[in-house]
Write a structure and sequence with these properties.
The chain is an alpha/beta fold. The chain has one domain: 3-Layer(aba) Sandwich (Rossmann fold). It is 53% helix and 11% strand. The protein has 7 helices and 5 strands, in the order βααβααβααββα. The protein has a 5-stranded parallel β-sheet. Helix 1 (6-13) crosses helix 2, helix 1 (6-13) runs parallel beside helix 3 (39-49) and helix 5 packs across helix 6. The longest helix has 14 residues, at 20-33.
Length: 154
């Protein structure tokens, strides 16, 4: 099983983004292998799609939730305790609350690999980061999005 971070789901669905072409193969591979995902990451993806028409919004989320190889992990108190441990352990390397939930989910499911474009995960030796996106791609996209300040629309 492999964890798929929110940024990869977003790049996969949003064909306008320059990262889209880089994530098609790793997403297919992850779907074939089996994906682990927590509800916090699913909410993060939903947040990105929140301006879509309701039907399109629901269809995108259902596409994720209906994958037969998907295991969704709820955030409960046990996972929260693991999250708190990781939050303090990795705070100085740029791991925040949502990333700590990801790490806790990976521990709880014995997942050692993650598909993400978040560079902070590369600093954690116990996991393998899969990311064929050129390193400067996300930074350029972030700057463009700030300048545009537009909503995501289909």
């Amino acid at each position: 099983m492999i964890y798929v971070d929110a940024n990869y789901w977003i790049y996969w669905f949003d064909q306008r983004l320059p990262e889209h072409k880089h994530v098609i193969r790793p997403m297919r591979d992850a779907i074939n292998e089996g994906i682990v995902l927590n509800v916090v990451t699913l909410i993060e993806v939903a947040h990105y799609f929140r301006h879509l028409p309701k039907e399109t919004f629901q269809k995108r989320l259902q596409t994720i939730q209906n994958l037969t190889t998907l295991t969704i992990i709820d955030l409960d108190l046990d996972l929260a305790e693991l999250t708190f441990e990781d939050l303090t352990k990795y705070a100085k390397i740029g791991i925040g609350g949502r990333d700590s939930v990801i790490l806790a989910t990976m521990k709880a499911t014995d997942s050692k690999r993650i598909v993400t474009h978040d560079e902070a995960f590369r600093k954690i030796e116990s996991i393998e980061v899969i990311d064929p996106i050129p390193q400067d791609s996300a930074r350029q996209n972030e700057l463009k999005n700030r300048k545009r300040n537009t909503r995501f629309e289909e």
